[in-house]
Amino acid sequence: MDIEQRAEILLCLSPAEVANLKEGINFFRNKSTGKDYIFYKNKCHLRACKNMCKHQGGLFIKDIEDLDGRSVKCTKHNWKLDVSTMKYINPPESFCQDELVVEMDENNGLLLLELNPPNPWDSEPRSPEDLAFGEVQVTYLTHACMDLKLGDKRMVFDPWLMGPAFARGWWLLHEPPSDWLERLCQADLIYVSHMHSDHLNYPTLKKLAERRPDIPIYVGNTERPVFWNLNHSGVKLTNINVVPFGIWQQVDKNLRFMILMDGVHPEMDTCIIVEYKGHKILNTVDCTRPNGGRLPEKVDLMMSDFAGGASGFPMTFNGGKFTEEWKAQFIKTERKKLLNYKSQLVKDLHPRIYCPFAGYFVESHPSDKYIKETNIKNDPIELNNLIKKNSDVITWTPRPGATLDLGRMLKDPTDSKGIIEPPQGTKIYKDSWDFEPYLKVLNTAVEDEIFLHSSWIKEYFTWAGFKDYNLVIRMIETDEDFSPFPGGYDYLVDFLDLSFPKERPRREHPYEEIRSRVDVIRYVVKNGLLWDDLYIGFQTRLQRDPDIYHHLFWNHFQIKLPQTPPDWRSFLMRGEQNGSGTPQVRCPGCLGDTPL
C-alpha cells in the first residue's frame, strides 16, 4: 500500500535560537528525542542534516584540522563531511549526506523537516522496456510547456501559450507552434506545477476551457491550492484533480506519474516524475530544492529551469547599496552561481538527456525597458556547454515545435531523427505582443467605485490579516514611470497594530516604501490577488530602511492571503465614510472622500 509523502518535524528552534546561529557549523540536539543535528550557516542561507555518519552511524564533532570551519569529523572512524556541500571529503568521492528541509515559521523560528518516505519513486520499481521509434515523443511548445506523447496517451506540462504572466510583467519569448490549441485539446491529461501565472495561466486555460472544460488537470496537494482562484477567475474548468505527494498515479498499464513537493516552498511548489514502460522523465520545474534535494538518478530525460531573473530583486530596488553597478555585479554573480548549481545537479543525477526550459520569458512592454535591459538571464546553450564539459550527459536546447524521440535518442544519440527541429523558416522568437486587451482589463480597476472611498485601505489590509509585526510601509500609487499618480493614494500602514498613521511612528521600526503602478495594485486589491503580480511582475519600486528582507511580510502577501477576495459589495453597501481608524492619505487632491 502506497503511503503519501509527508514532512515530519524533527526539530524546532525558537526565534532567539535562530538569531544566535553563528556563521559556519552549529550543533543541536532535540532534547525530547535525543537526536542530533548539524546546521551550516552562510550569511542568510542555512543547510542542515542529521548528525550521523553514513558509514556506521557515528557522531560528528568539529574538525579541528579544518581552518575554514566547514567540515566535521566522525568519532568512530574519522570520516569527514563538508557540511557546506553535504559531501564526504574523507573518503573522497564516496557519499553525500542526506539533507533536511529548513523552513522558517511565522515568528522567525525554524522547523527542521524530513520528507518521508524520502525516495517514494522506488516503490513498485519497473524495469525499462524497449521503446519503439516514435512511441515516446517530447515536443517543446513555449517556456515550461511540453507536449508528451507516451504511447497512445498525451500529457502536457504547464500551458502558458498566450497573454502575459504576473499582471503585465512577463511575456512569451518564443512564438508557440500555430497548432498549440489543438495540441492542448487533444491532451489526455495536463499537469500544472504551481500557481504562478507562467505555469497556471488563466488566459491560456480560458481558451482551452471554451473547447474542453472537462479536460483532466492534475496538481499536487499543496497547502495553498494551485487553483485557489479558479471560481473568481471566470474560467470554467470542471475536472481538477488534487493528488497526494509521493504516490504513483496510474494512467494506464504502461504510464504513471508522481508529484513531489519542493523542500523550500512545500506550501506551493511541486515537481513531477513521469514513467512510461520503466523509463523516467523528471521535470523539476521551478523548485528550489525539489523533494528536499533527493531525486532519482540516471533518469532518461531531465528538464529544469535555468534562466534566473524570476524575481523583482534587485532590479526594482533603489537607495543605499542598490546602485546600477551593484545590481549588475549581483545579477552577474547570481546567474553564474545558478549555472554552476544546475550543472552540478545534472552531473550528480546523471540523466541520459537534459533539457533547460521554464526560463523563456521577456519583459517586452515598452514601460519595462529598464527591467529588460538589466534583468540578464542565463543562456541555455552556455549551461549545456558547461554540462557537456563536466559529464557525458546529452543536452537539448529546445526550440518551439522541436520534438525529441526518446526511443531513438536512447538507442543512438547521434541519430539525425532523434531530435526533429521545426521546419526551416519557422518563427522562433516573438517580435510583437498583443498588449492592449490585457492592459485594458487592468485599467478597468483604476476607476472602480471602491477607490472613491479612502476607507478601502483599512478594509483591504484588515482582510489581508497581517499584523502584530514591527514594520511600517508607505504605499504610493504611481504612473507608468513610478512617479506619483495624479489623484492617487499615498499612505502609511503600521503592521504592529494595523493602524494607518499620518506620520511614521516615533518608536524604532523597519520601514519600506513601495511604489506600485496604479492599474496593477488596484487590480490586485480589487480581486484579492497575491502580490507576486507586483513583485515578480516588476510592477513596483522599493526602498527599505534598514536593508532587511522581511520574510514574514512578503511571504504572507505572496502566499498566505485569504483565498476568497474582499467583499467589496458589502463594503460599498455599508457606505463607509471617514471615521475612527480611517487611513490618513498624504497627497492632496486624491480621489473621493480622502481626509487632507
UniProtKB/TrEMBL annotation:
Cellular component, GO, one term: cytoplasm
Subcellular localization, as worded in the UniProt entry: Cytoplasm
SUPFAM superfamilies for this protein: ISP domain (SSF50022), Metallo-hydrolase/oxidoreductase (SSF56281)
Chief location: cytoplasm
UniProt entry keywords in alphabetical sequence: 2Fe-2S, Cytoplasm, Electron transport, Iron, Iron-sulfur, Metal-binding, Oxidoreductase, Transport
GO process annotations (BP): CMP-N-acetylneuraminate metabolic process; N-acetylneuraminate metabolic process
Family statement: Belongs to the CMP-Neu5Ac hydroxylase family.
Biological function: Sialic acids are components of carbohydrate chains of glycoconjugates and are involved in cell-cell recognition and cell-pathogen interactions. Catalyzes the conversion of CMP-N-acetylneuraminic acid (CMP-Neu5Ac) into its hydroxylated derivative CMP-N-glycolylneuraminic acid (CMP-Neu5Gc), a sialic acid abundantly expressed at the surface of many cells.
Protein name: Cytidine monophosphate-N-acetylneuraminic acid hydroxylase
Protein source organism: Prolemur simus (Greater bamboo lemur)
